[in-house]
Design brief:
binds pyridoxal-5'-phosphate; Aspartate Aminotransferase, domain 2; binds magnesium ion; homodimer; 14 strands
């Protein structure tokens, strides 16, 4: 049994793996989920149930559509401005990390971009808070959780312009008020399901306001009009997402998982703060519950600790190269027992070090 | 045991299903293929081997890149003109079916399109052959196999302009000379693997010739530069494609499977022609080996035959609504025993009819 702290694609519930494997062998009447047409009633039922569960788990108000797309969050970096940023307009972006930077870089291929604030100069160790969003922005874009730097923005910035949010790494980890957003997108490979699927939640009335000619696959409206079946969807990824959404619902939904996520994060940050060998890398008030970034006071101990942790079955905690040290990603499916295993390893390593000195 | 004649997503080899299910449970060291990072050495090895096998199986000359993308063939309808059709240029398209029509429709969102010929007026029952490709076309695009109508173009049209081909439904079913093409694309969900993956084979020198600003995810060059890992790839679909490519290689590669595909198609067309109850729908010289379209002389017998076939375990033969009747898709993984089962059903149905009259 491994403790998988990988940043994504990441751990999903063990029962989801079992059910998914079964469906690969026999989904329906002897046929594999990999060999059925997406136009079968069986698969249409999968998409309908996944749609219903996303709406239920996110407590979606009416007037929003849920889309199951391909291309990852990175394709959304381009689709958002293609669909929402008209000629001569300006879109406002908050630069809180590498993904935010990529999002705004792609928007620049399409139109004009205004960066409202950036914490790049301090290597994104905090999320800028005092900024103004020009009232004539076509939309305001931000990243709710900065996967690489371990910072998370829990409050939706106040503005009267449409709000677009990349929630790739914290969607469904905590209760949000969807009515504050006009478009939410997320690569599925953290809290939703496996890689190869992107979830988009879009307020219908925000679309159709600009007159760019948009190829059908890049036009949200074609996907809305065709119930995410404009073309062949990523059948297996959608099915596994459904299994995972069912699991989340059976756990009590987003409000319940949020409690667990808080407990997991509090326990690990407490140990990082207490343990004299370790320290967190970012502003305490911006600490992410999903990706916990930390380093060692003595960088020379990082390799030995990584090795020690691996011996304990702890995998995926090597930090991203732009931060170094460690990153423990603790998405919904990571059990609290894995967090305790990591904390135990930190404490035992501390004891070993004390003995060695 | 079902005989799965579905048009796609379609049957894959049974051993691929078994290996894929196993990897969902335990791909590497106790971890599921669904929870590993795409940046692990294990997954990098998967992509490298898949790349090598595509090159080997297609007998790729040097100077070509293989890409594993998302979005299906439908996203290629847009990416091709975005990357190859400059301002003020014209792209030539052959209109041989619904997919060809969609491809050229999407190209019109991007630039100027010239339709060299169309068989729309005869409901695409044949592939136009006498047409001219203007020598100043940015490229010439055609669909090698028209999945819906059951026609296939075995000869690459002669031209001096770059040739782009949608091979979604016949890639790797027969030997082709890749050096005649500048760009080949295919949704994986027929002969390559499961849905959620698109294969692109592109001649490197055809790129970079126009100066449109192309968002990174829509720019072939970013995917080439990053070895198909510009962003999170569809991990599981690529892995299953690899399993399937290994299977194809173990069968003797494309030349061997082509022999089988010929046998399967000849057997079924022979029965369609012989059996007085059935008739083919398209020009004999354009008959596809992948999708065999046929109807009944007496349309009232179609429902009873469909029902009878289903009782024999034959699924997926209902024709597309734009043709009606039946479509038996016989991709690489469909065993010849399934073709014999269909032929038997046709003969037994003929006998039953004879007795009833
Ligand atoms: C916040 C955020 N946005 C975007 C991305 C890019 O996602 P994808 O690889 O699906 O394009 C990631 C990937 O980890 C991410 O964490
Ligand atoms: C020849 C051809 N082109 C394109 C497509 C569309 O493919 P996708 O659904 O992957 O976008 C299909 C789908 O069956 C096809 O057969
Ligand atoms: Mg980041
Ligand atoms: Mg400390
Ligand atoms: Mg067609
Ligand atoms: Mg006949």
């Amino acid at each position: 049994m491994k403790h998988n702290f990988g940043a994504g694609p990441c751990i999903l519930p063990q029962e989801v793996f079992k059910q998914a494997a079964q469906a690969v062998l026999d989904f329906n009447d002897g046929l594999s989920i990999l060999e059925i047409s997406h136009r079968t009633t069986e698969f249409e039922a999968v998409v309908a149930e996944a749609d219903k569960l996303v709406k239920e788990l996110l407590n979606l108000p009416s007037g929003y559509s849920v889309l199951f797309l391909q291309g990852g969050a990175s394709l959304q970096f381009a689709m958002v401005p293609m669909n929402l940023l008209g000629d001569g307009q300006i879109a406002s972006y908050l630069d809180s990390g590498v993904w935010a930077t990529k999002a705004l870089k792609e928007a620049k291929f399409v139109g004009n971009v205004n960066v409202v604030a950036s914490s790049k100069d301090s290597n994104y160790t905090f999320i800028p808070k005092d900024f103004e969003i020009p009232a004539d922005s076509a939309y305001f874009h931000y990243t709710s959780n900065n996967t690489i730097y371990g910072t998370e923005l829990f409050e939706v910035p106040e503005t009267n312009v449409p709000v677009v949010c990349d929630m790739s790494s914290d969607i469904m980890s905590r209760v949000i008020d969807v009515s504050k957003f006009d478009l939410i997108y997320a690569g599925a490979q953290k809290n939703i399901g496996p890689a190869g699927l992107t979830i988009v939640v879009v307020k219908d009335e925000v679309l159709g306001k600009i007159d760019r000619k948009i190829p059908s696959m890049l036009n949200y409206q074609s996907h809305i009009d065709n119930g995410s079946m404009y073309n062949t969807p990523p059948v297996f990824s959608i099915y596994v997402a459904l299994l995972n959404l069912r699991w989340l619902k059976s756990k009590g939904g987003v409000a319940e998982i949020e409690k667990e996520n808080k407990q997991k994060a509090e326990a690990l940050y407490r140990e990082i703060d207490r343990n004299p060998l370790f320290k967190g890398t970012c502003a305490v008030e911006d600490r992410s519950r999903m990706n916990v970034c930390f380093v060692m006071e003595n960088p020379e101990l990082e390799k030995p600790f990584l090795k020690y942790a691996e011996e304990e079955g702890i995998v995926g905690i090597k930090g991203h190269r732009s931060v170094g040290g460690f990153r423990a990603s603790m998405y919904n499916a990571l059990p609290i027992t894995s967090v305790h295993a990591l904390i135990d390893a930190m404490q035992l390593f501390e004891e070993k070090q004390a003995k060695a000195n």
